[in-house]
Amino acid sequence: METAVRTLVDETPDEYLELEEEDLVERIRARKREYGKRMVVLGHNYQRHAVYSLADFHGDSYGLARVATEQKDAEFIVFCGVRFMAATARVLAQPHQTVIHPSHLAGCPMADMASIHQVEKSWKELSEVLDVRRVIPMTYMNSDASLKAFCGENGGIVCTSSNAGGAFEWAFARGDKILFFPDEHLGRNTANSRGIPKEEHLLWDYRKPLGGAAPERVERAKVLLWKGFCHVHQWFTPEHVIEIREKYPDAKVVVHPECTEETVAASDAAGSTGFIEKYVRNAEPGSVIAVGTEIQMVSRLAFQHQDRTVLPLSRSLCPNMYKVNLGNLAYSVDHPGEVNVVTLPQDIIDKARIALKRMLEVN
After folding, report:
1. pLDDT in tens, 99-131
2. Of 34, 182, 317, 331, which sits 20 to 30 A from 232 (CA to CA)?
3. Do residues 310 and 273 lie in contact, with contact meaning Cβ atoms separated by under 8 Å?
4. 346-361 and 83-92 are packed helices; what angle lies between their axes, rounded to 10 degrees?
């Protein structure tokens, strides 16, 4: 586990869950005024609007990782997102800083699709048929801190959907192959964008010996793609794109690169949530943009840009992002440093920081 928790239930006292929304909002704002620069609230793009509106900084996981490193005056960093994001902030935070995650129940199913034990087993199997010194382990930001530490210890790197292309270039400047986990779709779409032939992609099924492939097939592959996915983005299909284009012939379709390669190929553009936000912002007034990402963000973009039509490619909600709410946020800022504190072993922090710093240095 990345966060130190006692139970698998939300420990927010009933008094916070029973308060009206306006009372919770004022309570949170009062604490923010009280602490000033000593407390900073970070809000991921997928957060519900009520929480998002109270954040001091907004963005995707890459942008917020950068912001977390810049908060020199903050004693408390409150991360409104899912667990791996708060753990990343803990890795990057300075020793005097406390990182707070309002709901330890807000995990990530995709991050859970690769464990340190599975990765270490796969690495051992690779070492029996390859010189693993020429294999660069690369973990997507959406992963456990122990996997980031594994990459730091073994010459690898962390990437986000914003800088995956640059991370691939970084890796191939240092090795012959990439072991990419845990999201096969981001890995495949990035490999496609770098012009790596499909015959040099290999889907690595960690449940099978040597990923389910023959040694010679592993030898030929340049990118080993872990068998994992994001249920929010795998939901979107080429059929959704076709339906949108039939209803809105002039529509532009932009999707997240965690979608399947078929969906990305059918769309007009693909990129991180930061990229999607800019894509919509730069669209001409009166245009129609269908967005293939989490519904909270799509709804917010539609509200912010009412002079154009912004609509969901299909409705897809991340229930884990939704577990951060005004009640547990208010409880967290009322008791900073006492509840919902993110803790990690120091050796994990030290090794993961190496891989994350490499990520931050890559354009």
Report:
1. 999 999 999 999 999 999 999 999 999 999 999
2. 331
3. no
4. 90
